[in-house]
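User: quick one, sequence for these tokens?
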């Protein structure tokens, strides 16, 4: 626990530094984040009775209106948290960049975070919860004015302390054809190109013999965004040139396919009413800095951004059997052949007015979410490996979900949330395990405001499931002593799973916040499974232990 005490000491020093430093004007900014866990019990032997921590120190200095500098130091000591790639280790300089801007022109040298359009062709970003930092080490140049934005990016992709073998380069352009504040109307079109160059050779042949497909894989993208008053519409299409497909850790010379992506978003946003519909079709859209990284567990080498388009839930039982997007080609056996995904998500929001029969004194908010995702329909062959898809064909269903949420305020001090969810999850096609799961979840979440800035929140939830691990129940209590300090307890129990001894998972802890700093500590037994943020997931093994986190900025 020496490292725990060191982290707390650093935290205290940073708070003192922040309090004094915030009183002065400066061009220096930074943040520090530390998460540590003492693993009392664990399903991974390397972590039994061991302490692990992830630590991040980000520093930024603005020299003047044109020049800025940014660096991030990371430390995984004595070992990284479980569920993170083994490419994260020790203490090292993780990212470093120098930026210049003047008269609409911009240049960056070093670590680059960028996104083209919706990210279907290129997105580099950092998400510490997921263990993703796929920045590009290289150069970026930009030009922008009121009507035009041009970007160029080139370099190697970051992977832990290493960089990719393949080189990444991209060009993005965006043109504003219509922009009117008087009628609240605008029209934007965008064109993008992303290339990944990697010279491959068969590893067991000497002298080396190259593959028949091109070393350079290209993505070409076009998009349009239109909005007028309460209405909006967006469409993006991507074409991916032929590339070898990875199967069982090998790149196959005789399984070479093109790829494509289509996404459409349309909606209406008014006061008290909202409608949003998204359609997406992905075919062979896995795209990595190194080809052999296709299908790797941690997603740290992906060039493009392909999140699952399903509703993101806040409750423990609603996050069992989560859907992950299926953009890849996967042929594990003749009974399971996938080429991508096709589906939709729809959201409908409606506020019942105050003073009506159903609205009551304070009004009522309703939201409905529907989503459904399938394999691409078509002709599939396992021997030889091949497929041909239908553009709008819906094949084997992967996942579907319907949820209805009601938010109701009953008085100045009491409100609650009712959530009902119906879910179908195909383990065979999504997780490549056996089984199909039909389940329903019911959640009641109540909040009571007390005197002196105090509040109490109580939630109860139940998962109905005749398949897989059968029924669950859970509840949670959270008490806020004031705006700065709170404590909680929650538990979920798989009470019908007698084969595994009715597993129970629980956690209790507290958090304290002041200004730009937050400290939290918790203890409990955490369920293994997918941890997801924004539709991107990583697997976390089950464990029992003591956790803490520190987060401050200055």
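Assistant:
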């Amino acid at each position: 626990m020496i490292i725990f005490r060191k982290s707390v000491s650093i935290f205290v020093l940073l708070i003192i530094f922040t309090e004094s430093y915030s009183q002065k004007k400066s061009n220096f900014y930074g943040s520090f984040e530390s998460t540590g866990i003492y693993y009392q019990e664990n399903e991974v032997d390397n972590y039994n009775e061991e302490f692990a921590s992830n630590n991040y120190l980000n520093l930024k200095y603005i020299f003047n209106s044109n020049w800025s500098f940014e660096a991030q130091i990371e430390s995984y000591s004595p070992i990284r948290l479980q569920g993170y790639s083994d490419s994260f280790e020790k203490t090292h300089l993780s990212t470093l960049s120098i930026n210049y801007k003047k008269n609409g022109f911009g240049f960056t040298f070093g670590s680059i975070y960028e996104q083209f359009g919706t990210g279907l062709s290129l997105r580099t970003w950092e998400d510490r919860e997921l263990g993703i930092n796929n920045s590009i080490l290289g150069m970026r140049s930009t030009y922008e004015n009121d009507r035009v934005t041009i970007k160029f990016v080139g370099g190697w992709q970051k992977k832990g302390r290493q960089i990719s073998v393949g080189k990444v380069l991209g060009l993005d352009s965006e043109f504003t054809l219509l922009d009117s504040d008087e009628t609240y109307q605008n029209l934007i079109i965008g064109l993008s190109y992303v290339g990944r160059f990697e010279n491959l050779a068969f590893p067991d042949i000497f002298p080396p013999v190259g593959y028949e497909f091109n070393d350079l894989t290209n993505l070409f993208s076009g998009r349009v965004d239109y909005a007028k008053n309460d209405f909006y519409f967006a469409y993006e299409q991507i074409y991916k040139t032929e590339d070898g497909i990875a199967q069982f850790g090998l790149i196959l010379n005789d399984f070479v396919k093109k790829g494509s992506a289509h996404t459409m978003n349309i909606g209406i946003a008014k006061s008290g009413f909202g409608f949003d519909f998204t359609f997406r079709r992905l075919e062979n859209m896995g795209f990595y800095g190194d080809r052999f990284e296709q299908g790797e567990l941690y997603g740290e080498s992906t060039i493009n951004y392909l999140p699952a388009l399903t509703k993101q839930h806040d409750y423990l039982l609603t996050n069992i059997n989560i859907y992950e997007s299926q953009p890849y080609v996967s042929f594990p056996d003749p009974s399971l052949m996938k080429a991508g995904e096709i589906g939709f998500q729809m959201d409908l929001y409606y506020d019942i007015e105050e003073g009506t029969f159903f609205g009551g004194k304070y009004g009522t908010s309703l939201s409905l979410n529907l989503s459904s995702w399938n394999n691409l329909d078509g002709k599939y062959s396992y021997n030889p490996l091949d497929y041909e898809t239908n553009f709008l064909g819906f094949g084997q269903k992967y996942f579907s979900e319907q949820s209805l949420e009601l938010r109701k305020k009953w008085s100045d001090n009491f409100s609650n949330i009712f959530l009902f969810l119906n879910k179908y999850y195909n383990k065979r096609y999504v997780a490549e395990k056996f089984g199909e799961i039909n389940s329903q979840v019911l959640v009641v979440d109540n909040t009571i405001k007390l005197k002196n800035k105090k509040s109490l929140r109580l939630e109860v939830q139940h998962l109905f499931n005749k398949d897989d691990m059968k029924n669950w129940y859970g509840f949670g209590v959270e008490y806020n002593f004031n705006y700065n300090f709170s404590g909680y307890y929650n538990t979920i129990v798989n009470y019908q799973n007698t084969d595994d001894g009715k597993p129970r998972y629980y956690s209790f802890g507290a958090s304290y916040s002041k200004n730009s700093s937050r400290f939290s500590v918790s203890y409990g037994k955490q369920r293994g499974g997918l941890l997801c943020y924004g539709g991107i997931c990583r697997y976390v093994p089950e464990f029992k232990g003591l956790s803490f986190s520190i987060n401050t900025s200055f």
